[in-house]
Predict the structure.
Amino acid sequence: MHELSITQSIVDAVCEQAAGRPVRTVLVRVGILTAVVPDSLRFCFDLTTAGTVAEGAQLEIDQPPGTAHCRACEKDFALPDLVLLCPCGSADVAVTSGQELQIVSMRVG
Amino acid sequence: MCGTCGCHGGPGEGGGPGLAVPHAHPHDHDQVGESPSGAGETITLEQRVLGKNEELADRNRAWLARRSVVAVNLMSSPGAGKTTLLERTVRDLTGRDRPVAVIEGDQETALDAERIRRAGGSVVQVNTGAGCHLDAEMVEGALTALDPDTGSLVLVENVGNLVCPALFDLGERSRVVIISVTEGTDKPLKYPYMFAVADLVIINKVDLLPYVDFDPDQCVAYARSVNPGLRVLTLSATTGEGLDAWYEWLEGRA
């Protein structure tokens, strides 16, 4: 249940930036290749924000899909999981999206 | 559009779609990132969720580098043989060139720390309680308590878990994942995140291979499908088979 620590990091950062103002929404970007489960994040978010300026805030989660670039055939392709294999058969690939784990923005006031 | 009154104008201007008649503007239209959908201000953060842990991990890395200490993070599911491998490693390497110390991570008890101490190693136990992984802050505290000699090797035994520890940088030099032959051959595909961040995979308990249907070659192929550059060692911490290659690998981290 690493989502609890991750949520704690999000709430700590958000409360620091809010500087006492009530937080209404928080937007995070969690790529599908990150091993972070959005439903768990939401569950932990409600627990973690209790008693803070972010209590009752809405958590919005943007989930970029996994994509990769193949260095052999020079094509970009969809990567549904971490098995690094291009449809051309090459394993010489670089993940280009899906590993994001960012706090994007928040709305206060 | 002004989030407070609905008009499109600057200070002093009125008559937007939100109000039919010209109106005064006591509020500020120059506020950065004002929300279009209601009162409030949008603040852009664009910061890494685990940024604080990563900062602390970098601090640990710098602290370790100043003392020429090499830290290695050992991760596996419960029962793969981390502590047995550490006991053996501490016993075999103590008295050689490089002092060895251990940080033991478990949810509860100091049982593993006692095993390491009996094997002759200096050790600090970290109990994570409800936590399922070590983080950089816990390791910072443990390193301070351990106070390793200059030039030491610090082996960090993470909490037995193949998911959560993968996300938390501790400031270590290398990451080792241990899998034992009594587990499923397909574990690298079921827990790809852990295998994706590893520098080395150890396949442990190879002395039991005649009794189980574990396929080491297939397991390595699965692990390399998520991490093509992965190094692999097969050994038995109980019989000692393959340990020399493990000690050579550790020596190479210095």
Observations:
- The radius of gyration of chain A is 17 Å.
- Chain A has two helices and six strands.
- Residues 66 and 98 of chain A are 4 Å apart (CA to CA).
- Chain A touches chain B at residues 1-2, 4-6, 9-10, 12-14, 17-18, 24, 28, 34-36, 81-85, 91-92, 101-109 (CB under 8 Å).
